[in-house]
Structures are given as structure tokens and as C-alpha cells.
Amino acid sequence: MKTYERIYKIVKKIPKGKVATYGQIGQMLNLNPRVVGWALNRLAKYKPNTKGQKQDNIPWQRVINSKGGISTNKLMNIPLGLQQLLLEKEGIVFNENKKINLRKYLFKH
Questions:
Q1: Which domains does the chain have, with CATH numbers?
Q2: Which pLDDT band holds residue 53 (cuts at 50, 70, 90)?
Q3: Structure confidence by residue, pLDDT tens digits, 71-101
Q4: pTM, whole model, 2 decimals?
Q5: 7 exposure class (CB count in 10 Å sphere: 0-12, 13-18, 19+)
Q6: Nearest-5° angle of CA 12, CA 108, CA 88?
Q7: What is the DSSP annotation of the chain?
């Protein structure tokens, strides 16, 4: 199985209302967290469907940085605030610093 496919397989397992970090997924697969980011950024080439997920139903929005924050706001191919909006629709709450409480929402594999 190719590296990106292995990443997508894990991301698909993150349940609604939970998140994982790039580092967490990287550690599970013995990969640099940046590779996880590159794999998920690749999904942005596809148009979102009506549920806000990419066409191949990989819940990319559930992967965040190790500080509990959004990293996609730095990408030109994902609309500003989209990831936070999608996570909030799943019931995830952000604090005043736009961070997620990882103790509460982190996916335990």
C-alpha cells in the first residue's frame, strides 16, 4: 500500500467529534508529520461535496497540529476558516485562542 493510502486509511478511522494530530498519525506510520500534511493537502485539489468532505470521503478536517490548532489557514487552496467551521459542525469547541482541547477531543487509536 502506498504511503498516502496508508495515511488516508487512518484518517478515515477518526470518528466524528474527534481529532488527531499530524504527529500522532506520523508516529503510527513511522513517518514525518509533514508527510501527513502533504498527503492531506493533496486532497484539496478535489472539490468538496455537500457535506464539506472531499469527494473520496476522507475527513481531512479532523487532522490538526500538535498545539490543538488549525494549520490549513496557511494554505491557499482551502478557504479561510473552513476547517474550523467543519469541526464546529461536528461539535468540537474552540477556545478564545482558536485552539481545541486535545484532552477532550483527541482520537485514541
A1: 3-105 (1.10.10.10)
A2: very low
A3: 876 666 677 888 999 999 999 999 999 999 9
A4: 0.86
A5: buried
A6: 65
A7: --HHHHHHHHHTTSPTT-BEEHHHHHHHHT--HHHHHHHHHHHTTSPB-TTSSBTT---GGGEE-TTS---GGG-TTS-TTHHHHHHHHTT--B-TTS-B-HHHHB---
